[in-house]
What does this fold into?
Amino acid sequence: MEVIIREWGLWPEAGCNAECPGFKCVPGHTDCCCRRILFCQPDFVSHKSQLEEYITSCGHIFDFYPKFHCELNFIEQYWGAVKFRYRSSQWTCDMEQMECNVIASHFISAYSQGLTGAQAVWVNRKYHGHRTLPPDIVEELKTTLGSV
It folds into this structure.
C-alpha cells in the first residue's frame, strides 16, 4: 500500500500505519492510515469487485445488501414469512404432520403467484432455488401445463 500511495504522491510526511486500530478511522480524516487513503481515491471507490464484474458479465443484476440490514434482504424477508407461516400452523408432535407443515410453508411463493396446489407441486419439483419461483418458471408452467 505504501508503494502505491508514494507513487501517487499522497504519502504523508509523518508517515502512517497500514490501518487504524480496530479499523476505526478518525471521522473526517482522509489520511490517518494507508487503508483510508486508498479507500478515499476515486478509482478505488468506483472499482467493482471481481464477483460483481462476473455476475454482471453474465447478464444478471448484482444487488449487494448492506451489512446488518436483514430487513432489506428479500431472502431474509421470504424466510421470515415462511417461519411465521410455519409457526402459525397447528402445533403437533407428529413428524409426518410437521413435514407437511414445512412443505406447505415453502409453497407460499407459488400460491402468492396464483398457482393451484398441483401446479405448485410441479413447479417446486422443477425449481429449487430457496423455494422462490421466478416469473419465467411460472410462465413456463402456465403455457406448458395450463390448468392442472
User: Anything to note?
Assistant: The mean pLDDT is 76. The chain has nine helices and no strands. The chain has two domains: 2-47, 70-144. Residues 74-88 form the longest helix (15 residues).
